[in-house]
Amino acid sequence: MRIDKVEAIPFRIPLKMVSRWGAHGNRSFQDHVLVRVYSDSGLIGTAEAVAALNVYGETQRSITHIIRDVLAPMLVGRNPLDREGYQAALAAIPWNPAAKGALDIALYDVAAQACGLSLA
């Protein structure tokens, strides 16, 4: 089995109540990135990356960019069950914890499905 394609799809979640983030102002929405990893065997792993500039230093735009333009090309063609291999590849690029975490969860989702299990 090989990774065939990786998607990073930005989306916005409206909040029911406005929240206040200290000196950072009010928020009426939360930006996320839907991450999908497609295998050549038809399995699709899914995860979400939360854009939290004040926490992780990542924005929706930076997460989408690093996945689409840097990390996805490093993963395509790799075996999604080779955790050590893809983790070593991802480690070559510093930081980006939300983006890498979402990719890791999506890859675990593919692995779980390959074993007939669910992460949910």
Structural commentary:
There is one protein chain. With 120 residues, the chain is an alpha+beta fold. The protein has helices at residues 60-75, 83-91, 97-114; strands spanning 3-20, 26-39, 44-50. The protein has a three-stranded antiparallel β-sheet.
Q: Rg from C-alpha positions?
A: 15 Å
Order of strands across the main sheet: 1-2-3
Sheet/helix structural class? alpha+beta
- Nearest-integer average pLDDT: 93
pLDDT < 50 runs, ≥5 residues: none
Biggest pleated sheet: 3 strands, antiparallel
Distance between the termini: 22 Å
Kindly estimate the percentage of residues that lie in beta strands according to DSSP. Answer: 25-35%
Total strands: 3
**Helix-strand pattern:** EEEHHH
Helical content (DSSP H or I, runs of 4+): 25-40%
Helices, strands, pairings?
Elements (H helix, E strand, L loop, with lengths): L2 E18 L5 E14 L4 E7 L9 H16 L7 H9 L5 H18 L6
Helix pairs in contact: 1-3
Throw out a few tags for this protein:
120 residues; alpha+beta; three-stranded antiparallel sheet; 3 helices; 3 strands
Explain briefly what this protein structure is:
With 120 residues, the chain is an alpha+beta fold. It has helices at 60-75, 83-91, 97-114, and strands at residues 3-20, 26-39, 44-50. It has a three-stranded antiparallel β-sheet with strand order 1-2-3.
